Amino acid sequence: MARTMEPLAKKIFKGVLVVELLGIFGAYFLFNRMNTSQDFRQTMSKKFPFILEVYYKSIEQSGMYGVREQDQEKWLNSKN
Question: What distance in Å separates the CA atoms of residue 1 and residue 72, rounded to the nearest whole number?
Answer without folding.
Answer: 61
